[in-house]
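## retry 2 of 3
previous attempt timed out at serialization; input unchanged, resubmitting
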Amino acid sequence: MTDENKDETEKHISITKIYLKDFSFESPQAPTIFSSTDWKPKTNLNLRSSHSSVTGDLHEVVLTITVEAKEGDSTIFLVEVQQAGLFDVVGYGGDDFNAIVGSFCPNILFPYARESVAGIIQKGGFPEFVLQPINFDALYQQSLLQATKTAETEATGSEKH
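## retry succeeded, writing output
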């Protein structure tokens, strides 16, 4: 076996555990909101992910989804879920590793988070709420472009001083 083939076989990603790290649901207008049949709430979705090293090649990735429904200035419901996973990431470094924890892992966690969000909203007495699929690859690329622009802006700003 050549060194090149040896490096290839030593790369792997495995899911060790998927779990709910934190979950919050608020419905401050209940029960009076249920007497109104003519409300059309606007929903805001906030999505972010983070990762931290646990031990060795084991990494925790946390996908946080916040959904807020408002009618005017009043909050109808607010849901926040932190869906987490432990991933064994072996043999990847640099950009490959960053793409794994920034895109691949959140993509694995999303269906679990989506199910939790939909279930709790329905249990809260509200109509079915379905989060649309998210393109984590595109979001990751977007965050890389933003980081590059920020670094360029800071570099240009420090040159002027």
